[in-house]
Every structure is written in structure tokens, then in C-alpha cells.
Design brief:
The chain contains 13 helices and 2 strands; from the N terminus they run H-H-H-H-H-H-H-H-H-H-E-E-H-H-H. Bound molecules: Phenylacetyl coenzyme A.
């Protein structure tokens, strides 16, 4: 027997309407949202590092201005997402602690190094491309603050993807060496990009419940397929190939068939054993500790303002 509150919640979900912060929600729904939104926020913040690595070495002022703007946008996305999580009763400070103590995750993709400037283009094209595929449906997620944050995030991600593709297109019109740099970069990022969508559906413990609650709108495998189908013609236009001998059009299915990502590698990266996990967290921890004085000063200032207002 459902209580009146539960019935109202279920009805709201069934009508595809939004759950808002003041509405009653099951504890599991709240916890799942905190987990997913926090991971998403952490991914944006940690995701500043691989590309941030190249800001001081951008090949021109134009490329530097574009890259700076993109990395700043990622900080902004992290902040909207932490704000969305805060509506669920957790603070940004707590979430940051959980990230640097390794108690919350962030996307596996950001544990791979960026070895050449072509990686800036490839991240824009494939990583932001995968992010868009995953996030456009999240604009219709059942939790209001998360869905509304996604709308602006997706608009900015579209610009990010375009700048990456344009960068790669420019390099592909350059020298043989530049074309080789692009292909080498795509070869390294293709499989990790496919892993961004999460484990295969049969090994995804959260998908079924998250779909029933309207938090996720598609399964991991559906979105991965959509991404592959979208990327193949873009690769052809660019003149690069993907490192997958099984990748081919299947007319019967109306989709591309493709090979299996190395799920053992994925598990290792998620567990903290990827090429850059330790470095990413150490960098985030150092930035947090170096910023302690700013937080203390802001609190002291706010206290003084409050006292002045009372006097
Ligand atoms: N990496 O049961 P599921 C960006 C974990 S885009 C690490 O399938 P779920 C933009 C998962 O959390 C990247 N861990 O989980 C940008 C769970 O563990 P838990 C961020 C992963 O939640 C571009 C376990 O495996 N985007 O940042 C990954 O239903 C360029 C079992 O998995 C989002 O976060 C992974 N790839 O589905 C920024 C999108 N996949 O939590 C800078 C929102 C799975 O139980 C530069 N999130 N796990 O301990 C989602 O859509 C979902 O959370 C999924 C995973 C699809 C990622």
C-alpha cells in the first residue's frame, strides 16, 4: 500500500513532470541523484585538468583564447551541478571532501593523459561529443534542478564539440605529420570515449531503477550505439579511422556493429588504477588545500558583515 506522498511522487514521474526540491521523494531517489549529480560535477572539475595542461602551450593566441574559454566553461558546469546537488541536502564542501578522499567517482575518461595538442581537438570532438549524447536526454531528467542545469551545459558542450572538430579539421588540412598526430590521438581516445557511457546494460546495477525513476532516459548501451552511429560519418568527413576492425554498418539493424571495449581496463580505471588517477586527485587536493585561506577569508568577511548589520 503506497502512502499519499508516494502515490503523488509516482504520479508525477508517470506524467513525466518534474520533481522539485521541496517535493517528497523516496530516499533511494535522493541518494541516486546525489551520486549521479556529484559524479557529474566532479567530472567537470577534474575534466579541466587534461586540457588545462595545454593552456600555456597553445599553438596560437586564437587557440589559447578558445581553450581558456572552454576550460572556464567546465568550471561553470561543475558549479551549476554542485548547486543542483545542494538542493538535495548535501553541501559542495562535503562533496569535494568525498572526491578527494576517493569516496565518490568521476568519469573514467579524465584518467587518460593528453600527450599532444591534437588531444585538445579529440577531447572536444569525441569526449564532448559523448557527453552531449549522454546529456541531451538528461535535459528531460525527472529532477528539476538537474534537468535545468543540463540545458545550459548542453549548449556550451555543443560549442566545445565544434571547436574540437574544427581544430582537428585544420590539422587534417596541414602536413602529413599533423595528420598523423590526429590519427594517433583518435586511436588513443576512441575506446576510452566508448567507456564513458558506463558498463554494458547487463552489468549496470543502477540503470533499471534510474530509468524507472526517470533519472536516466536511455540505457548505457543505447547511448553508446547512438554515439558510434553519430561519430562514423564525422570520422569519414575528417579523414580518420577508428581503431576497431569490427566497426561496420549493419543494414539489417540500421546501426553500426562495433567491437567490445576492454571492460577489464574500464574496471581498473574506475577503481583508481588508470594512468592518471593519482595525479588528478593529488592536483585537486592541492588546489583545495591551497584555496583554504580564500574560504577562511570569505567566512571571516561574511561574519563581520553580519556583525556590522546587527550593530
Ligand atoms: N566512469 O550502474 P551504472 C563531462 C560507475 S562528461 C567512472 O551504469 P549509472 C564533460 C557508476 O558510477 C562526463 N565511473 O551507473 C566534459 C557506478 O558506480 P557507483 C560526466 C563510471 O550511474 C568534457 C558503476 O560504474 N558525465 O564531464 C562510469 O546508472 C570534456 C556502475 O555503473 C556524467 O556524469 C565512467 N565512465 O550510469 C568535461 C553524465 N560509468 O556510482 C570536461 C551523467 C559508470 O554505483 C572536458 N551520468 N561508472 O559507485 C550518467 O549518465 C551516469 O551516471 C552514467 C553511469 C551513464 C555515467
Amino acid at each position: 500500500q503506497l502512502s499519499a506522498l508516494e502515490t503523488r511522487f509516482e504520479d508525477t514521474i508517470a506524467r513525466s513532470e518534474r520533481i522539485e526540491p521541496r517535493d517528497w521523494m523516496p530516499e533511494g531517489y535522493r541518494k541516486t541523484l546525489v551520486r549521479q549529480i556529484a559524479q557529474h560535477a566532479h567530472s567537470e572539475i577534474i575534466g579541466m585538468q587534461p586540457e588545462g595542461n595545454w593552456i600555456t602551450r597553445a599553438p596560437s593566441l586564437r587557440r589559447k583564447a578558445i581553450l581558456l574559454a572552454k576550460v572556464q566553461d567546465e568550471a561553470g558546469h561543475g558549479l551549476y551541478l554542485y548547486s543542483a546537488a545542494e538542493t538535495l541536502g548535501v553541501s559542495r564542501g562535503e562533496l569535494t571532501e568525498m572526491l578527494i578522499e576517493g569516496r565518490q567517482k568521476y568519469s573514467s575518461i579524465f584518467n587518460y593523459p593528453t600527450l599532444s595538442y591534437a588531444d585538445v581537438g579529440t577531447i572536444g570532438w569525441l569526449v564532448d561529443g559523448a557527453a552531449i549524447c549522454n546529456q541531451v536526454p538528461l535535459c528531460r531528467t525527472s529532477y528539476g534542478p538537474y534537468g535545468r542545469a543540463m540545458i545550459r551545459v548542453c549548449k556550451e558542450e555543443s560549442f566545445h564539440q565544434r571547436q574540437g572538430y574544427e581544430l582537428l579539421m585544420t590539422m587534417m588540412q596541414g602536413t602529413d605529420e599533423q595528420r598523423a598526430m590526429v590519427q594517433e590521438s583518435v586511436d588513443r581516445f576512441w575506446w576510452p570515449a566508448l567507456m564513458m557511457f558506463g558498463p554494458p546494460d547487463e552489468d549496470s546495477p543502477n540503470t533499471a531503477q534510474s530509468m524507472a525513476w526517470g533519472i536516466k532516459r536511455n540505457t548505457n548501451d543505447d547511448l553508446r550505439q547512438r554515439f558510434v552511429d553519430m561519430s562514423v560519418p564525422q570520422a569519414e568527413a575528417l579523414g580518420v579511422t577508428f581503431p576497431d576492425p569490427d566497426l561496420k554498418w549493419n543494414a539489417e539493424r540500421g546501426h553500426h556493429d562495433f567491437g567490445e571495449p576492454d571492460w577489464e581496463e574500464f574496471m581498473q580505471v574506475v577503481k583508481g588504477n588508470g594512468p592518471c588517477n593519482a595525479q588528478r586527485i593529488a592536483h585537486r587536493r592541492a588546489a583545495h588545500e591551497d584555496g583554504a585561506w580564500v574560504r577562511e577569508a570569505a567566512l571571516a568577511f561574511a561574519d563581520r558583515q553580519r556583525e556590522a548589520a546587527r550593530a
